[in-house]
C-alpha cells in the first residue's frame, strides 16, 4: 500500500466524522514506517477535525506505526493499547495525549458501527413492510341490497 493510499483512507475516515466531541487542542503526527512510509497529521481543535499530509512539528504526540496497523486501528479491528503493548505502535512525546486520541478513535468507531447497524436494521425492515403491503390484495367491498 502506498503512502497516498494510506493517507487518503485515513482522511476519508477522519473527515467523515466532521466534528468530534473534544474540547481543546490535540495534534497527532502519524509517521508511517515500512511500506508506504511518510508522515501526516490529525488535528482536533474545539470539535473540528483536520487531516493534512505534512509533519506537525509542534505535535502533542507522534505515533510510529505501519500503514496496515494504523488503518486497522482506524477501523476498530486493532486496539491501539494492544498494538502499543505488543510493539506494533510506538509513541513519542505524550502517552497521555496518545491515549486521548485512542479514546476518540474508539468512540468514532462505536458511533460508526451503531449508525451502520441502525441503517441495516432500517433497510431490513423497510422491504419487509413493503412486501407485506404488496402481498395483500385489495379487499373488495360488496354491498348487498336489502330486499324488502
Write the element-wise H/E pattern from the N-terminal end onward: HEEEEHHEH
Oligomer: single chain
Outline: globular
Beta strands, count: 5
Tell me about the largest β-sheet: 5 strands, mixed
C-alpha Rg, in Å? Answer: 25 Å
Q: If helices are DSSP runs of H or I spanning 4 or more residues, what is the number of helices?
A: 4
Helix content: 40-55%
Q: What does this protein structure show overall?
A:
With 148 residues, this protein is an alpha+beta fold. It has one domain: SCP2 sterol-binding domain (Nonspecific Lipid-transfer Protein, Chain A, 2-Layer Sandwich), CATH 3.30.1050. It is 47% helix and 22% strand. The chain is built from four helices and five strands, in the order αββββααβα.
Itemize the secondary structure elements and their pairings.
Layout: H1 3-16, E1 25-33, E2 38-45, E3 48-52, E4 61-66, H2 67-75, H3 80-85, E5 89-93, H4 95-135
Parallel strand pairs: 1-4
Antiparallel strand pairs: 1-2, 2-3, 4-5
Quickly list its features.
single chain; 148 residues; alpha+beta; Nonspecific Lipid-transfer Protein, Chain A; 5-stranded mixed β-sheet; 4 helices
Amino acid at each position: 500500500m502506498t503512502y497516498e493510499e494510506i493517507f487518503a483512507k485515513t482522511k476519508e475516515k477522519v473527515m467523515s466524522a466532521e466534528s468530534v466531541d473534544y474540547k481543546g487542542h490535540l495534534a497527532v503526527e502519524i509517521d508511517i514506517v515500512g511500506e508506504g512510509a511518510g508522515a501526516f497529521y490529525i488535528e482536533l481543535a474545539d470539535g473540528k477535525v483536520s487531516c493534512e499530509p505534512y509533519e506537525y512539528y509542534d505535535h502533542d504526540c507522534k505515533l510510529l506505526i505501519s500503514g496496515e496497523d494504523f488503518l486497522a486501528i482506524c477501523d476498530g479491528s486493532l486496539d491501539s493499547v494492544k498494538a502499543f503493548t505488543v510493539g506494533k505502535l510506538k509513541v513519542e512525546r505524550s502517552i497521555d495525549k496518545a491515549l486521548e486520541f485512542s479514546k476518540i478513535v474508539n468512540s468514532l468507531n462505536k458511533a460508526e458501527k451503531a449508525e451502520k447497524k441502525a441503517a441495516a436494521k432500517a433497510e431490513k425492515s423497510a422491504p419487509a413492510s413493503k412486501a407485506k403491503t404488496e402481498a395483500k390484495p385489495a379487499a373488495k367491498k360488496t354491498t348487498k341490497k336489502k330486499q324488502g
